[in-house]
Design a protein that fits this description.
The protein has one domain. The chain is 7% helix and 31% strand. It is globular, with a radius of gyration of 18 Å.
């Protein structure tokens, strides 16, 4: 399969995984993380989350979408409590709603973040947000446990070779929105950076693309026409708080890849049960 026909929904097939595993990762250093706050998740949790459907085409994605928004990441904060575990809070301001309805400031709360012992627990297949960058994001319309983003549909606005492009968390350029989903081509930027810095531009030419990368306007027009052609409609209510059923201490942990002489379970948070509530693989970065 050519890169240009790969889809955001696939992300190496992890959305079809049957189990969810955790690995606590050690970084040599953490920057731009702020303080780890010992506090519980605020707000009243919604109803219990059901297992999300796989995002294997546009119809299934839209069925789980309350809103498609565009906005600027103006703050990223980190919370931790013994009861709820680590959470990353991404604040998107100056929100412009493309489809559905959403407030002018949206908080996206992902599971994962710094632990009190200096290690980091991350959800490898969740989208990664970069402070100061603009995004187009699909917000979930049902109860959730790990992330309110539909699949990994958080597309970053970048400038490449003097032209605006949309890329996913792996730096791959969005080339098309069709019945099969959001299609991406070759990577124009590096993937997520460990130190929180903006991904670097890769040396790529348009000759490696079968279709020209889309900018925000092109993406919105492509999505609008595809929704109309398929008779699909974005609807529902966005819940900005998790359902609270995620068993974060019931997951396996381990050392960071490449670490030396690290105990097998340095955090002491090891358990025999795997939580399959959202069928996403969580691994160390």
């Amino acid at each position: 399969m050519k890169q240009c026909t790969s889809r955001v929904r696939l992300r190496h097939g992890v959305y079809l995984a049957a189990a969810l595993g955790l690995v606590a990762a050690s970084f040599d250093h953490l920057t731009n993380t702020g303080d780890v706050q010992a506090q519980a998740v605020r707000g009243t949790p919604p109803i219990a989350a059901s297992t999300p459907e796989s995002i294997d085409d546009l119809q299934r994605a839209v069925q789980q979408t309350a809103a498609v928004i565009e906005g600027l990441v103006t703050d990223i904060q980190y919370d931790y409590s013994e009861e709820e575990g680590p959470w990353t809070r991404v604040f998107i301001s100056n929100v412009r709603v493309l489809f559905g309805s959403a407030p002018s400031i949206v908080e996206i709360r992902h599971f994962g973040g710094p632990l009190p012992n200096g290690r980091l627990m991350v959800a490898a297949e969740l989208p990664v947000f970069v402070l100061g960058k603009e995004y187009i994001v699909f917000l979930r319309n049902g109860a959730w446990n790990v992330s309110p983003v539909v699949g990994d549909l958080a597309l970053r606005v970048e400038t490449w070779a003097g032209t605006e492009v949309l890329v996913n968390s792996d730096g791959q350029a969005v080339t098309k929105v069709g019945a099969g989903g959001v299609e991406v081509g070759p990577a124009l930027f590096d993937g997520p950076q460990r130190d929180g810095s903006a991904p670097k531009t890769l040396v790529t030419t348009l000759r490696s693309f079968d279709s020209k990368p889309l900018d925000r306007l092109g993406f919105a027009e492509s999505l609008t026409s595809t929704l109309a052609a398929q008779g699909l409609r974005v609807a529902g209510t966005f819940a900005d708080r998790p359902a609270g059923a995620f068993k974060w201490r019931g997951q396996w942990t381990g050392p960071a890849p490449g670490s030396v002489d690290t105990p097998a379970d340095p955090t002491g948070i090891r358990g025999p049960e795997a939580d399959t509530s959202e069928q996403k693989a969580l691994i160390a970065r």
